Amino acid sequence: MSPFKVIGHLIKGDLLRSRRDWTLGWLLVGPWVNAALFLYLLPRLVLLLKDDLNLLRFEPLVLGYLFLWFAPLGIGQWSARLLLEEREGGFRALAVLPISRTGFFAYRLWLPGLWTYFTVLGTLMLASPVPLPMGPLALISLGAAVLTPLMALLLSTFSGQRGQAAALARLIKASGLFFALAFMLPFSFQNLVGLVFAPYWIFKAYWLVQAGAVNYWEHLAVGMAFLLPALGWAKRRFLREFNLALRA
To answer: The whole model's pTM is what?
Structure first.
């Protein structure tokens, strides 16, 4: 069986499992539904509340929270749930398919990251009331896509079962309140949040693009300098844990 046929078989199985369990499927398609709802509801809410509240002021925060945070983490949670199910089942795919352990884990981690890239890019283009330049959005989407394998690795490594993974996922998603904190701070103090919360830099790059600034790439580079080492550490922990599970 060729590598493409193996990948196709794995994708078919994943999609079937996601259709059977709507909570899994929602993690994949939910961001697109949210983008369509945002595009439909925002103009109406702005018009309805124009005399009481300027909703457009909060647009960068809401869009960033939904599509640069919730979307990558949700897809990472999808990947982690499948990994945990496979661990509980003794990794049967490794026994019946001609795929190496490295190839299987690469598929389970990096293909969701690719889906996240196109999801973030597409939803931001769809939901943004004002069109943003494609180049910066493509780079920011790449930074956000790193969060998906990182989330999958953390949940898979530090959760013994799916229930624990769901609880840990909720805790990690709640840490996104740091974005709201940064948004409320004066501009000169916002970067302090990035010293304790690395994903902030991806958000800040997006906010700067929305503001028409050209130095967004500096913040994106700082974010990647924090996130890529964290991804490498999480990968090493994950492989150590799962190698033990495979030997059991």
So the answer is: 0.91
Rounded Cα–Cα distance for residues 204 and 17 (Å): 36
pLDDT, residue 1, reads 65
Q: What is the pLDDT of residues 100-123, one digit of tens each?
A: 878 888 888 899 999 999 999 999
**What is the identity of the amino acid at 82?**
L
Q: Are 194 and 204 in contact (CB under 8 A)?
A: yes
